[in-house]
C-alpha cells in the first residue's frame, strides 16, 4: 500500500512539474497548427473557380478536430455585416457565427488553447477593424492584442499567462491577436510556388524533388530563427501562388488541395517536427490532411 501511494505521489508530482514546464513556455515558442486562409473551408466546390481559393477542407469545428489551434481570419466588411474572404473571393459566412462555433468547441475542451489571428481586412480601414473587434467583444472574447497599436503585451508572455488572459466564461481559452503586418511575422516567400515554367511540385513529376527541397529548406531556415520578443512567428509550410502558377494549375486540372496532397508536404512535415528549433504558428493548407498526426508529433516532442 505504501509503495502504491509513493508511486501515485511521484506520478502526480511528475505530471504537475510537466504542466508547470509547459505553462512557462513563451507563447511565441509554443507550437500550434495554423490553417492557412481558414475561412476557405466554408467555400463550396460548386463555387466558380473554387480551385483558386479553397485552401481548407472543412468548417472550423472540423479543423479543430483535425488538430488546428490557430485560425487565419480574414475579415470582410460590407453593408450586410462582417464576413470572411480570400482575396477577391467573398465567403458568405458571418465571422460572428463561425467564431461562435470555435467558442462552443473550446467550452467542451477546456484544456485547449485556441488562437484567432486577424489580418487582411477588407477594406483595410479603422471602421472595418472596429466592427470586427466589436463582434469579438459581443462574443465576450478578450480585446485583440495589437488593436491599440502595440504588440508589447506579447513580450515575455507565457502560455500560462495567455491562457489566463483568454479564459472563456463557459470554459476553454480563445486568444485574439492582430496578425500579419502588426503582431505576427509572416515570413512570406513568394518564390515557393508549386507550378513553375516546366515543372511542378507533385511527387514523381520532373523537377519535383528540387521544388519540394526549396520549400523544406525555407521551413527549416525559418524555424532556426528565434521569434521577436513582442511578435508571434508564422512558418508558411504551404505552396505560394501567383497568377502564372494559378494559370498552370488550372490548365493541369489541379487545385490547391490537390497540390498539397500530391506534393506530400503535410505528410513530410510530421517527420521533421523534432528538428524544428523554433516553431510557433505552423501554417498549412488542407490542415485536415495529416493534421492529427502533426498534433501528435508536437505532443511527443514537447
From TrEMBL:
CDD domains: PI-PLCc_bacteria_like (cd08557). InterPro entries: PI-PLC_domain, PLC-like_Pdiesterase_TIM-brl. The keyword Calcium does not apply. GO terms for biological process: lipid metabolic process. The keyword Signal applies. Keywords: Signal. Residues 1-16 form the signal peptide. This is Phosphatidylinositol-specific phospholipase C X domain-containing protein. GO terms for molecular function: phosphoric diester hydrolase activity. The lineage of its organism: Eukaryota, Sar, Alveolata, Perkinsozoa, Perkinsea. It comes from Perkinsus olseni.
Amino acid at each position: 500500500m505504501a509503495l502504491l501511494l509513493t508511486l501515485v505521489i511521484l506520478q502526480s508530482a511528475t505530471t504537475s512539474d510537466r504542466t508547470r514546464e509547459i505553462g512557462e513556455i513563451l507563447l511565441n515558442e509554443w507550437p500550434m497548427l495554423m490553417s492557412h486562409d481558414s475561412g476557405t473551408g466554408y467555400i463550396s466546390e460548386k463555387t466558380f473557380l473554387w480551385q483558386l481559393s479553397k485552401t481548407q477542407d472543412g468548417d472550423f469545428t472540423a479543423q479543430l478536430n483535425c488538430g488546428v489551434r490557430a485560425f487565419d481570419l480574414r475579415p470582410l466588411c460590407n453593408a450586410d455585416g462582417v464576413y470572411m474572404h480570400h482575396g477577391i473571393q467573398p465567403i458568405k459566412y458571418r465571422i460572428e457565427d463561425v467564431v461562435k462555433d470555435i467558442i462552443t468547441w473550446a467550452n467542451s475542451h477546456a484544456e485547449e488553447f485556441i488562437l484567432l489571428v486577424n489580418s487582411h481586412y477588407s477594406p483595410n480601414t479603422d471602421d472595418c477593424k472596429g466592427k470586427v473587434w466589436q463582434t469579438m467583444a459581443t462574443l465576450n472574447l478578450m480585446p485583440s492584442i495589437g488593436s491599440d497599436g502595440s504588440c508589447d503585451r506579447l513580450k515575455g508572455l507565457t502560455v500560462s499567462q495567455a491562457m489566463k488572459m483568454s479564459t472563456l466564461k463557459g470554459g476553454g481559452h480563445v486568444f485574439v491577436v492582430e496578425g500579419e503586418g502588426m503582431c505576427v511575422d509572416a515570413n512570406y516567400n513568394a518564390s515557393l510556388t508549386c507550378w513553375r515554367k516546366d515543372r511542378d511540385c507533385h511527387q514523381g513529376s520532373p523537377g519535383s524533388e528540387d521544388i519540394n527541397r526549396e520549400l523544406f529548406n525555407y521551413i527549416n531556415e525559418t524555424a532556426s530563427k528565434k521569434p521577436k520578443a513582442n511578435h508571434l512567428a508564422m512558418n508558411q509550410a504551404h505552396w505560394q501562388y501567383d497568377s502564372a502558377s494559378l494559370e498552370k494549375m488550372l490548365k493541369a486540372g489541379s487545385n490547391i488541395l490537390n497540390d498539397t496532397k500530391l506534393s506530400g508536404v503535410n505528410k513530410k512535415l510530421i517527420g521533421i517536427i523534432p528538428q524544428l528549433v523554433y516553431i510557433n504558428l505552423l501554417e498549412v493548407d488542407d490542415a485536415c490532411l495529416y493534421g492529427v498526426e502533426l498534433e501528435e508529433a508536437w505532443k511527443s516532442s514537447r
